[in-house]
Amino acid sequence: MEFKNGDLIIFRVEPGLHYTEDGFATIITDGGSLFLPEAISLNSYPSSNDFRGNLTKVNCGDIGIILEYLGRPRQINQDPEWFQYDVYEIYINGFACHAFKQNLRRINRRVDRVF
To answer: Which of 76, 33, 53, 109 is nearest to 100 (CA)?
Structure first.
């Protein structure tokens, strides 16, 4: 299920989610800290220089918002089964950055009705 612009999300990184099942990195790690890049190159991913621009420090459980669906890297199969490689622009911790769907979970909105 694709996210929509404006959806609230939780950034999720659990053991094993730094990389896809295929061994490709989805976030940047440095000394136990997690970072999302300002941009992910959809033209070259997966390669050694795909994460570009400023970095935003994030933690598992941080809340953000979907700004825009950017697409899937060109070198990744477009079959729906490869959805974890879909890239979104998100706003999190005061910055816009790019993130793979693999590391995002939708926050379900519950509306209480008052009669």
So the answer is: 76
State the residue for tokens 């941080």: 62
Residue type, 59: N
Provide DSSP, the chain: ----TT-EEEE---TTTTB-TTS-B-SEEETTEEEEEEEE-TTT-SSTT-EEEEEEEE-TT-EEEEEEEEE--TTS--SGGGGGG-EEEEEETTEEEEEEGGGEEEPPP------
pLDDT digits (tens, 9 = 90+) for 7-64: 999 998 876 567 788 888 899 888 778 999 999 999 999 988 899 999 999 999 999 9
Query: Rounded to the nearest 5 degrees, what angle is found at the Cα of 107, between the Cα atoms of 78 and 50?
Result: 40
